[in-house]
Amino acid sequence: MKFNNFLKICLILCLTTLFIQCKKSNNNYEEEQEESYSDENGYSDGTYCAEIDYYYSETGTSSTYTLLVEIENNELTVIHWPNGGWLDDSHFTPPDISSGEASFSSDRGVDYTVKIIGNEGDCSTSSYVTDEDDLIQQKEDDENEEYRKKQLEEEEEKEAEEEKRRQEEEESKE
């Protein structure tokens, strides 16, 4: 009889333990499902590591960098440059990045493609980047250099014409 009571107690303990473990597993499953559901709906607000491709048609300059970006409401709102600067949504319309990738053009005509590659701290970011100010300055410097070359060519043409005119005058005097 004592043996039967012992078996009943063991059976009750086993069933209770099994019930508790199943309950814990179910809670973990629900939490995983919530995380998955969040991932399916895009990205939580925060800072992420991203691969940034840019192209500036005015100079033909293009590059790819790994930088930190900020996402709010599944929209890309800020790109952080390694020099402490940033490009924020005051210079572009925040694109939807819930798929993990977005493309947009800034107010200065630079085209960007941004691909999320991990969470903040999951990657090593580029240490030097040519930011928009550098791109615009490069364009202005190139335009100034082109202007100087054109002025020099025009001056040389004028001098050549002047020299030719003088030679013609001297020849006509003789």
From TrEMBL:
Compositional bias per record (Basic and acidic residues), positions renumbered to this chain: 161-174
Region described as Disordered: 121-174
Composition bias, Acidic residues: 130-145
Protein name: Uncharacterized protein
